[in-house]
Amino acid sequence: MKLALIGDGESPHLLKWARALAPRVELWAASSRGFLPGFDAVLPPARRLALATTPRFEGGNVGLLRHAPRLAAWLRAARPDWLHAHYLTSHGTLALLARVLGVRARIAGSAWGSDILETPQRSRALAWWTGRVLRACAVCTSDSQHMAARMRELGAGEVMVFPFGLEALPPAPPDKDDDLFYANRGLEAIYAPLRVLEVFAALAADWPQARLVVAHDGSLRAALQARVQELGLGERVRFTGRLDAQAQASWYGRARWYLSLPRSDSVAVSVLEAMAHGCVPVLSDLPANRELVRHGEQGWIVGDGEVPRAADLRRLLPQADRIAAEHRAWVQAHALFEPAVERFLARLREIDARGPAR
């Protein structure tokens, strides 16, 4: 099978897909931006196309579509069996336009979260177009049942549901710091990092030893650092910037608590990573999060306008080892990536057996 990824080659998530697919198919990849260095070990430059655009994080990237003819010409030469688009309102649109421009390949579409849970809500036109892209996909993937249901409402046909999981289960951490909180979502409005700070500030008021490490980066970093000073938490909140996988694993392993409080999300890879490392999740009240965590038993779900008390979380500390074991067992059974990719490719082959794409 010859498969062409279409997505953001500067995303570690697309790189993870590429690492999983490369041993199993003849892999090609087109990126709306460039490629992370890790792609060099996965597929040769001759099988990569960098469109070198600068898409905006918040969306509205109509200019990306001007590159559809160039992408289509490259794909016609590559002659893939499948176009595998990641993030459907942008890269899914590129895949659909490539089909219109003569690329004879089926489309598989992988939703990433806001492309389904937020963008279609902005206008009827965006909802209609998202549905048009979904209907063009022979098969789609979703990482939560909640998002899959929304995709079907918008017009998707077949939707495979599996978490965008871990490549391997990490070793169990030898020890945890009961006072250490860790947060590593992007410092952008969509991930509500200010809410993370406000929740931590409320907890810290009754928890003198509590500390927060904020990893990752984004356009709100300066404002968040200023807010930390306003809250008088300068000695208790640390910003690390972007971290490599080894550093991330180190903080996951040390932190007892993991904070992720976006107002819209599907199953986040970072939450799965935190669970695999034995952290106790403190999550926003979203359907996908409730698919992962039983409130008050395996973590804490924070409703809109709510702030957990220090006493609420401390009640979970005697159960922390049980919680860690349950989360790690769930990830082992349901959220490892390699078996999911095998099932995905098996389904593509079944569809291919019907005959060539029209």
The top level CATH class name of the largest domain: Alpha Beta
Morphology call: elongated
Report the structural category. Answer: alpha/beta
The number of distinct structural domains comes to: 2
C-alpha end-to-end distance: 17 Å
Helix fraction?
Answer: 25-40%
Give structural notes.
With 358 residues, the protein is of the alpha/beta class. Helix content is 40%, strand content 18%. It has helices at 12-21, 68-78, 88-100, 114-117, 124-136, 145-154, 193-205, 221-230, 245-254, 269-276, 287-290, 310-314, 320-334, 337-352; strands spanning 2-7, 26-31, 48-50, 82-86, 106-110, 139-142, 159-161, 177-183, 211-215, 237-241, 255-260, 280-284, 300-302. It has a seven-stranded parallel sheet, sandwiched between helices. Strands 10-9-8-11-12-13 form a six-stranded parallel sheet, sandwiched between helices. It is elongated and about 65 Å long.
